[in-house]
Amino acid sequence: MLGHRRYYWLGLVLALVIGLAWWHQQRPDALGARQRADSTPDSIINNLFVVEMDARGAPKHRLQATQLRHYIATDRIELDQPRLFLYQDAMPAWTIRAIHGQMLDSADAVELSGEVRAVRETTDERARTTLRTEELRIYPEAHYAATDHFVVIDSQTHWTSAHHGLEAWFEDGVRVKLLGKIRTQIAAHAAP
User: Fold this and answer.
1) pLDDT tens-digit profile of 71-87?
2) How is domain 42-186 classified at the CATH fold level?
3) How many angstroms separate the CA atoms of 34 and 70, rounded?
4) Region of poorest pLDDT, from 11-20, 46-55, 146-155
5) Contact status, residue 46 vs residue 65, Cβ threshold 8 Å
6) What is the pTM of this model?
7) For all residues of the chain together, what is the average pLDDT?
8) Distance from CA of residue 170 to its chain's centroid?
9) Which of 43-47, 78-82, 171-175 has the lowest mean pLDDT?
10) Is 41 helix (H, G, I), strand (E, B) or coil?
């Protein structure tokens, strides 16, 4: 019977120690220290410039940002003033700019936010094309982009808007699926 009491007291002391340790972790100053660690980057790169090449040595895409920050606690990568260039054979590159960005899915995707602008310059066959939205998720390797935010595509002679975003595929030209209510305005040309 004496042995059972010893185990009872030992169990009670152990439970008390575990409870105190848990309570100590939950204190506001301990929570604040953990939150500061989560919000402090472990790596910072200023004036980021990265180019990925294809098998022939030509650029596939390029990423620039005034600053990149990596947070080890959440494995999050944030970008300030990112610019992404998507290259295609015999076509001008798409230049995509935003105020903020974040790399997602082990850097397979880039999510841009804040005044996102994607521009493809004029060619002999096509007018300059500009896409404007507030958020855009881009998968450079898949040549795919999507947003569920209001978007406007302006092509100098006409514009189109979609209230619920779009999906776009950039390989071999551009294919776009507009989502939600769509409006288009086409400029009339005078007859020759």
Assistant:
1) 888 888 999 999 999 88
2) lipopolysaccharide transport protein A fold (2.60.450)
3) 16
4) 11-20
5) no
6) 0.73
7) 81
8) 17
9) 171-175
10) coil
The percentage of residues in the chain with a pLDDT greater than 70, rounded to a whole number, is 76
CA-to-CA distance for 91 and 144, rounded, in angstroms?
Answer: 17
Is pLDDT at 115 greater than 90 in this prediction? Answer: yes
Q: Are 71 and 38 in contact (CB under 8 A)?
A: yes
Separation CA 66–CA 162 (nearest Å): 31
Task: Give me 66's structure tokens.
Answer: 């005034």
Q: How far apart are CA 24 and CA 20, in angstroms?
A: 6
* DSSP character at residue 121: -
Residue 136 Cα distances to 24, 43, 116, angstroms: 42, 25, 7
Show the tokens assigned to 140: 């450079």
Structure tokens given for 6: 């010893």
- Tokens matching residue 40: 């402090």
How many residues does this entry show for the chain?
192
CB 110 within 8 A of CB 102: yes
